[in-house]
Amino acid sequence: MFIINCKNYEEISGDKISEFVKIAEKISRKYRLKIAIAPPQHLIGLVSNSKTPILAQHIDNSKVGSTTGYIIPELLKKSKVIGSLINHSEHRISSKDISKLVLKLRELKMISVVCVKDVAEAKKYLKLNPDYIAIEPPELIGSGKAVSNEKPEIIIKAVNAVKSANNNTKLLCGAGIVSGRDVSKALELGSEGILVASGIIKAKNWTKIIEEFAKAMKK
Fold it and tell me: What's the confidence (pLDDT) of residue 2?
């Protein structure tokens, strides 16, 4: 799994999101690689009909109906969104909400990507059997310093935790990934995919950087 979190970067604003998704879709076909994109929430409608899998950046533990301003999983599914990030370090939520949201996405047959800051948190939420655990030390997010290089022991320990859990959860590696070399290192350490943001969104040439990451993943 190759997930690109667009956050709320200005580089992806307006119609630029459509251009970005088309580039990712083309590279996905070329390398036969699954690339999922999490656009800014208000831009989901512009790209939800594309062939590229679309994830939400966040969802709320709230109900369908009179819940103004909340991001509701049931409605996202009707907009062809396939799942969501949960508990990203920039949008942390309570353990109770994480548990309820993983269960809700499972009921809806949507993908859950639970973001964790360390191995202890990974072990805690592995008990929920989410589809993916994405480990991202907060201090490395957006730093340009990849966790796979700066703190490889975290990935190794997280990989072991996932194996010990003996469930269907897969591990993704995030934080500071900016090159194909970073991607290769993360996979060598046992990660089954990556979650990346600024390393791609802020690059001057989207096609070049996404292709670089894709080649690294295929190797």
Answer: 94
Q: What is the pLDDT of residues 41-91, one digit of tens each?
A: 999 999 999 999 999 999 999 999 999 999 999 999 999 999 999 999 999
Q: Which residue in 11, 74, 88, 107 is the catalytic one?
A: 88
- Catalytic residue status for 88: yes
- Neighbouring CB atoms inside 10 A of 198's CB total 19
- The CATH number covering residue 184 comes to 3.20.20.70
**Candidates 136, 139, 150, 212; catalytic one:** 136
How many domains does the chain divide into? 1
**Among 2, 77, 11, residue whose Cα is nearest residue 34:** 2
Q: What is the largest CA-CA distance in the chain?
A: 49
Confidence of residue 144 (pLDDT cuts 50, 70, 90): low
Residues of the domain holding 71: 2-218
Closest CA to 140 of 115, 175, 172, 173: 175
Alpha carbon 110 to its chain centroid, in Å, reads: 14
How buried is residue 175: exposed, middle or buried, by Cβ count under 10 Å (0-12/13-18/19+)? Answer: buried
| β partners of residue 194 | 2, 173
Examine the residue annotation and report whether 58 is marked as an active-site residue of this protein. no
Residue with tokens 């909400």: 97
Which amino acid appears at position 215 of this protein?
K
Structure tokens at 45: 């409608």
